[in-house]
Amino acid sequence: MRLGLGRSRTADGSATARSGAIVVDAARLSTGGRTRNRVLITMALFLSVYGAIGGRLVYLG
Q1: 19-48: per-residue pLDDT in tens?
Q2: Residue 23 to residue 11: CA distance in whole angstroms
Q3: Which DSSP string do the residues of 9-56 spell out, in sequence order?
Q4: Which end of the chain is more exposed for a tag (fewer CB within 10 A), N or C?
């Protein structure tokens, strides 16, 4: 699989470099799990805030 900028992946999913290029996968992998959790927490926060506002509007009628 071709990734661009001289990088490619082998069959087992590990990154390899061509022509001495440096491949940095650790930075992307270390923040990947945190990014998804932050997005889910942000979505839950907005849903609860807008739910509370909507509930108050329905209650006040």
Answers
A1: 677 766 666 666 767 888 999 999 999 999
A2: 17
A3: E-TTS-EEESTT-----HHHHHHHHHHHHHHHHHHHHHHHHHHHHHHH
A4: C
- Any residues with CB less than 8 A from the CB of 22 and at least 6 apart, and which? none
Q: How far apart are CA 15 and CA 24, in angstroms?
A: 9
Q: What is the pTM of this model?
A: 0.47
Is residue 24 within 8 A of residue 18, CB to CB? The reply is no
The total number of residues written for the chain in this structure? 61
- Residue 28 corresponds to which tokens in the numbers above? 């992307």
Q: Which strand (E) or helix (H) includes residue 9?
A: strand 7-9
